[in-house]
Design goal:
Radius of gyration: 25 Å
Number of strands: 15
Number of helices: 13
Length: about 300
């Protein structure tokens, strides 16, 4: 306990670091008797989220708080997995229920609003913490998703994980190949093969590649990372590295002031490295596709390419 702080103050500090939640076992750990907890819950109107886990007054029960409540109810014995882990990592925006967790085979706990799978192998070195939640690591998360997802969904998951710099397709493949047989293994293998041929971070990037498919020169199959003296410079959405011609795709967020300044800095550094850029946005790609293709061809010819 922190000197000069009472038990309830310590507990409030614990809750502040876990989405406003406290578990009964944590209350007992700081020295508060269960009878005192019962009285405090009744007097202040603490909200019981799941059995043994309460949300303190004034705190919002967000989707992440719901996930953390199950995490606390399992008291360190489980990991958020499958679609729940995908939501925690930001691979998928939709929060689905019941939440999905994995636990060791000897764990017999059940938690309200949670689908618990007993899979020992998933817990062998594949755990991580993100957003305050115990969760399967990104590569393992995608492996678990293969059992409940289509190939197209897995392709999007791989692309999002790559865009967020959580994991690469190659590292997912290594985890999958080192694992025992698991549900959806064939779908994941097909998704990885598709990503090897082409990986897009956005629908606009996919459209840009489709428009350029008519020219007799293929761009790099995935966003291209440019480095200088071992340091990261930029990631170009569509790139022709042999000619140092690149197409940065400007989605809506690129017009926000902070992002625009960051983009300007990156493009200045790329210019110093002799990259010729053809920026494109939704207006150009959807409504002026011929102009876009012509600009890319002109840039390639300027850099020495001949059809």
């Amino acid at each position: 306990m922190v000197p000069g702080m009472d038990c309830w103050g310590v507990l409030a500090g614990v809750a502040a670091g876990q989405h406003g939640l406290v578990a009964v076992w944590q209350v007992e750990e700081v020295g508060i008797a269960r009878q005192l907890l019962v009285r405090r819950v009744a007097e202040q109107g603490w909200h019981r989220v799941v059995r043994g886990v309460y949300l303190l007054p004034g705190m919002a029960l967000t989707p992440l708080a719901r996930v953390k409540a199950v995490d606390l109810a399992l008291a360190g014995r489980g990991l958020a997995s499958h679609r729940t882990a995908a939501f925690v990592w930001g691979l998928r925006k939709q929060f689905t229920r019941p939440m999905e967790f994995v636990v060791p085979p000897h764990c017999t706990m059940r938690v309200q609003d949670a689908h618990i799978r007993r899979l020992a192998r998933v817990l062998e070195g594949d755990g991580a913490h993100h957003a305050g939640v115990a969760v399967t690591a990104p590569a393992r998360t995608i492996c678990t998703l293969s059992g409940v997802s289509s190939v197209a969904e897995l392709v999007d998951d791989l692309a999002t994980a790559h865009r967020l710099r959580l994991v690469t397709p190659a590292s997912v493949r290594r985890v999958a190949e080192a694992s025992a047989r698991f549900a959806g293994q064939g779908r994941l293998r097909e998704a990885l093969e598709r990503v090897d041929r082409q990986l897009n971070h956005s629908q606009l990037e996919r459209l840009g590649r489709q428009l350029l498919a008519g020219i007799p020169l293929s761009p790099h199959p995935q966003p291209f990372v440019v480095a200088d003296e071992g340091g990261f410079v930029a990631e170009i959405d569509i790139a022709f590295p042999d000619y140092r011609v690149g197409v940065p795709i400007d989605g809506p967020h690129h017009f926000e002031p902070d992002q625009k300044r960051a983009d300007d800095d990156q493009r200045h550094r790329l210019h110093l490295l002799e990259w010729l850029l053809v920026p494109a946005d939704e207006m150009r790609l959807r409504h002026q596709p011929q102009v876009f293709v012509r600009q890319v061809i002109q840039a390639l010819k300027k850099k020495g390419w001949s059809q």
